[in-house]
Amino acid sequence: MTGEELTQLGRSVQAPASPDEAVLERVPNGNPDLDFLARFTCPEFTALCPVTGQPDFAHLVIDYVPDRWLVESKSLKLYLAAFRNEGCFHEDTTLRIARRIVAAVAPRWLRIGGYWYPRGGIPIDVFWQSGPPPAGLWLPDQGVPPYRGRG
Amino acid sequence: MTGEELTQLGRSVQAPASPDEAVLERVPNGNPDLDFLARFTCPEFTALCPVTGQPDFAHLVIDYVPDRWLVESKSLKLYLAAFRNEGCFHEDTTLRIARRIVAAVAPRWLRIGGYWYPRGGIPIDVFWQSGPPPAGLWLPDQGVPPYRGRG
Amino acid sequence: MTGEELTQLGRSVQAPASPDEAVLERVPNGNPDLDFLARFTCPEFTALCPVTGQPDFAHLVIDYVPDRWLVESKSLKLYLAAFRNEGCFHEDTTLRIARRIVAAVAPRWLRIGGYWYPRGGIPIDVFWQSGPPPAGLWLPDQGVPPYRGRG
Amino acid sequence: MTGEELTQLGRSVQAPASPDEAVLERVPNGNPDLDFLARFTCPEFTALCPVTGQPDFAHLVIDYVPDRWLVESKSLKLYLAAFRNEGCFHEDTTLRIARRIVAAVAPRWLRIGGYWYPRGGIPIDVFWQSGPPPAGLWLPDQGVPPYRGRG
Amino acid sequence: MTGEELTQLGRSVQAPASPDEAVLERVPNGNPDLDFLARFTCPEFTALCPVTGQPDFAHLVIDYVPDRWLVESKSLKLYLAAFRNEGCFHEDTTLRIARRIVAAVAPRWLRIGGYWYPRGGIPIDVFWQSGPPPAGLWLPDQGVPPYRGRG
Amino acid sequence: MTGEELTQLGRSVQAPASPDEAVLERVPNGNPDLDFLARFTCPEFTALCPVTGQPDFAHLVIDYVPDRWLVESKSLKLYLAAFRNEGCFHEDTTLRIARRIVAAVAPRWLRIGGYWYPRGGIPIDVFWQSGPPPAGLWLPDQGVPPYRGRG
Amino acid sequence: MTGEELTQLGRSVQAPASPDEAVLERVPNGNPDLDFLARFTCPEFTALCPVTGQPDFAHLVIDYVPDRWLVESKSLKLYLAAFRNEGCFHEDTTLRIARRIVAAVAPRWLRIGGYWYPRGGIPIDVFWQSGPPPAGLWLPDQGVPPYRGRG
Amino acid sequence: MTGEELTQLGRSVQAPASPDEAVLERVPNGNPDLDFLARFTCPEFTALCPVTGQPDFAHLVIDYVPDRWLVESKSLKLYLAAFRNEGCFHEDTTLRIARRIVAAVAPRWLRIGGYWYPRGGIPIDVFWQSGPPPAGLWLPDQGVPPYRGRG
Amino acid sequence: MTGEELTQLGRSVQAPASPDEAVLERVPNGNPDLDFLARFTCPEFTALCPVTGQPDFAHLVIDYVPDRWLVESKSLKLYLAAFRNEGCFHEDTTLRIARRIVAAVAPRWLRIGGYWYPRGGIPIDVFWQSGPPPAGLWLPDQGVPPYRGRG
Amino acid sequence: MTGEELTQLGRSVQAPASPDEAVLERVPNGNPDLDFLARFTCPEFTALCPVTGQPDFAHLVIDYVPDRWLVESKSLKLYLAAFRNEGCFHEDTTLRIARRIVAAVAPRWLRIGGYWYPRGGIPIDVFWQSGPPPAGLWLPDQGVPPYRGRG
Ligand SMILES: [Ca+2]
Ligand SMILES: [Ca+2]
Ligand SMILES: [Ca+2]
Ligand SMILES: [Ca+2]
Ligand SMILES: [Ca+2]
Ligand SMILES: [Ca+2]
Ligand SMILES: [Ca+2]
Ligand SMILES: [Ca+2]
Ligand SMILES: [Ca+2]
Ligand SMILES: [Ca+2]
Ligand SMILES: [Ca+2]
Ligand SMILES: [Ca+2]
Ligand SMILES: [Ca+2]
Ligand SMILES: [Ca+2]
Ligand SMILES: [Ca+2]
Ligand SMILES: [Ca+2]
């Protein structure tokens, strides 16, 4: 399983300065005859609020059905880390990540759940999928517990 | 992403005296090409019982699919806070909030779950959606745990 | 929102001596244009075993879609409390409560979950709904945890 | 609600020596006009491994839709207890119990979940239902938590 | 292990009409050389509010260190069931049960936790022990989860 | 069990306009010979931020050992509800409630846990007790789960 | 690490017919210079009620500090399995197991928690330790969740 | 229930040196007239990273509907244990196991969930099923909790 | 309650560029006569690995007993956010934060729990307190769940 | 913070062939003036059964109070991974790891919890500490949930 032009896997790589500069790499899917789901859970996401400049945090879960390519996971990690100094809104950020992965690996299907930490007492979750799931796909709940407040 | 006539975002705003006086504002949806779900979780809701004048409490979860507009979240917070001195019944209050958001942002779809604290040992939950969810929408459970009593 | 002949709401009322003597009251549904679900959670239900006369306990959850009437919740509480000295079987009791509410408020749809405390090591749960749920209704899981035994 | 030839209910009964000797009794269903689900949770099941003679344990959950008859629960308890000295495999035992109940009460529908304690680090669960559930039946998850190992 | 004058064990017994009429029986402690703890968990307790006559519910946990006698558990069950039509306050009821058991079996030590269902949104828990636990006794937490409200 | 000058119990009472105007009443302790703990759990507390005027929410748990008096629970509920339009800081409010109850019933011992909903991503909890617990008192954990954020 | 006269380890062994016939074996403690705790968790225990002959079930947790000998775990399993056709009371059974292990391996210290499945709605737990724990021992909670009933 | 050429069941068997050398055995399905689901939960899986040679860990859950054959569970355990020194990627390993079982027992249907321990902060889950589940099959959630990070 | 030289509270403030540049402010303790505990829960902490430059994440809980001063919470938030581009080790960072707060407000006592997200499969937690807790202080567990891996 | 002769940190290192060949390295403790606790959680531990050669699994938690040295975490990971082909008993392995760390970094205090996956239905946990914890140390529970079996 070798990617086309892997530049980051197995090397010490500088963190990219922004999501646009990050290189989201791919490796060939060794099982293209199967419709399977891969899930990435990313509990360590942070970006900046575009209005106040204060840090925002989220727990992200990304589900996709690979076609010809798999997402190379180290490059995904670096891509997500590149939002560290990027300002954008919760809805936009969540969808932007989804669009970028779709562009990079052209999956048969993808969905993203963005579970944002509360601001002003009210957290926002954002859920999107690229279309109806492929027929016959097995697609478990993401199962992230709801926000609870206290008590 | 700029709202049409935002009067509250980024300013110190007086809490509105009642829900009707509150201004529920909106900002343009930057991703109108996508059917995505946004979820607000509001664990800090309180109103008054119209019969006894005693405070009532609820945990609210609002899911919607934006069309041209997003709900501006600070104005949502102020709108919900404006129920603090408003008297109304559990079923009515839950549905009233839903109707108001529908009126304000004309979403493609919306649902609300109102999880009320028990009175007389028996809590009431209220669940409503504006119609069948859009085809192809990803719509996770709200996942709020059931009321348990003790033990 | 006023009931037709409310005799119990806002007054100090004698507990009815049996379910048949209890008056299950109703108030007009202020939102008859909407198909919404109301859920009552009743963790404090007790009746008597018709064979041994020993007390039985249950956790009940009632979901319904109001048509013209809402269940008046204080009268529901008194109705359920009236089973205190009534002997009947788990399956019968659960369904009897459902039939009574259906008769009282003629809902568009109703379901009841009766989660009975174990006798002889084996608890019984009883689940019934009045028909397929109305199209487009949002109907969350009752989510009551399964019986566990020990450990 | 009286069974046809109840021989065990309300009496002190000898535990049957084997499942085949146990008498699984029934009582008339007092609500034959309704499609309802009854769930038995049996956390105290034990049998013997047919190869080693060592004890096996399981947590069983049985869901059924009665037709003319209900399962008499004390006789169910005695029937299950009769497996105590019976040797059989996990898959076979689970299905054998289901077949026996189907034969005894001819339900409209039945399913059984057998959640077996681990042997060799790998527990087996067995799930079977007698056919697609009746249309319009309300059928909640059994909700038994997955096996976890440690940590 | 035989009690002195057991009148209820292994017989079909009428439920006593009040706690004072109930007979709390005892059996000899077969292990008087050991300081051990026995815990009864009683999730099915109900009494009446002395002011309103409405039913109250509680989850009770009783821990004791037997001296010469064990509490006979069937008589305990009947004693607790006899509160069904008894009116008294949460604090008083919890302590009354403790005093009665102390009087009946003269344990080396006893404690009771009364976890009452909420009234007016605020549940009361009552905790009492008869003195400092005997030295060297193993005394685990009762571990009852705190009241949570909703969300 | 009668209070000295109960003015609110069993009557329909106007909600007091502020904590200072609220009357925290007491009833005689019927078990003054025992050191027992009474716990009130109050998941429905709200006050105002003295700086912004925005609503604050908390889950409060109050443990005390009565001496001659019990806290009358309806008056406690009204007293806490009277903070609804009161502005004060988290630390101050929590301690003020404790001081008031101490003044009203002179308990042998008291502690309060104030679990405040997060502001700015960082919730504050406040814990105070009036001194070391009485020797021989049984004092279980309050057991409120820690704040979790998301994921 | 070899036992003195191991007759069961690594062989196919007949299940002993009773606890008294079972052989509880031991192996030398390879770390006699250290005070450490070993915990066995036994969720698969069953015996018979001496009065009714019906099966009883328990979840057992055994903690001990070895001196010269370790409990050989296969023989422990066979010993516990030998209670399958033994009649005895909850308190007695729990303590009998503890006494037997103490006799077999003469540990520096031992405790046992017996968490019995409910009979008549009220489960019994039995807790015993052989004396105060050795100074400097690390002794975590057994952490078994309390019995919950339903809901 | 006898397999065709069982070489491992009931014997002491050398662990196979690699998955390809392992023999995945089968026994006749004694209930071929029924569409039932068997679930294996394997919390003890480990393999090697093909790039770094470091160990990887996973929790695996395998669901299948037997046709003529059951998976012989001891041989499954040995087959899975044979990955201990095998290097391969998360996606490939999960699917390879599924393909092997399909080849061995030709089930009517199969699915596998591979829940891998995190690397670089981001765990990968892999989900595949061999096609749409058989009509009328009962197929519960695997219910494995999502990865949480900390807090 | 006014701080001495508050420069950040109630204003829009630039995020400080590093922890050393951040100003940790204080306000007078309005209850200096009481030994109470204040707990800050900070689930949104991030810093950089000093070796690789990759982001690290932690969940922090800080408990302290104020003396003359309270920590001003907005300045705490800004101080913690200033670690965003700071490289340091888990142990050092956790202790550095504790030392800084001690220096700023000279509390009677302080402790910090740093719960770091896993690196290499093994998370590190760091726990420190400034000395034995003040006598008579009430000091609940931080109760953060342990790291679990998968399954 | 530099170790004395670090040979593995920041390099690609061959996994050591056995625990004895592994090099457990150390780095200077930058905070020797403080008694703090560092906790490593290791959910990915595996070794071999010395009798059968079958794999064993454990979840390990190691708490220590550094003196002059910290455990270098990458070398700890490699050391633990080196047990992969090592045969030893649960009690011995757990204590051997503890002794090795004590030898390597001479901590002020250390404890280890070994939570082993079940064999024969009965898991073993092993707990040891090097002596009474240092006075004034803050030492939270490890909080690992108890083994549950099924249901
Ligand atoms: Ca699901
Ligand atoms: Ca809440
Ligand atoms: Ca309960
Ligand atoms: Ca659901
Ligand atoms: Ca169990
Ligand atoms: Ca479900
Ligand atoms: Ca695990
Ligand atoms: Ca404890
Ligand atoms: Ca505790
Ligand atoms: Ca998280
Ligand atoms: Ca503990
Ligand atoms: Ca309940
Ligand atoms: Ca977190
Ligand atoms: Ca504690
Ligand atoms: Ca603790
Ligand atoms: Ca169980």
Q: Can you offer a commentary on this structure?
A:
The structure is a homodecamer of 151-residue chains. By secondary structure, the first copy, chain A, is an alpha+beta fold. Chain A has a domain at 26-129: GTP Cyclohydrolase I, domain 2 (2-Layer Sandwich). Chain A has helices at 73-81, 90-105, and strands spanning 26-28, 36-48, 55-65, 69-71, 109-116, 124-129. A four-stranded antiparallel sheet of chain A has the order 2-3-5-6, covered by helices on one side. In chain A, strands 1-4 form a two-stranded antiparallel ribbon. The interface between D and I is small, with 4 and 3 residues. β6 (124-129) of chain I pairs antiparallel with β2 of chain J, so a sheet runs across the interface. One calcium ion binds at residues 149-151 of chain J.
Short description:
Chains A, B, C, D, E, F, G, H, I, J: Belongs to the GTP cyclohydrolase I family. QueF type 1 subfamily. Chain A has 151 residues and is an alpha+beta fold. Helix content of chain A is 17%, strand content 29%.
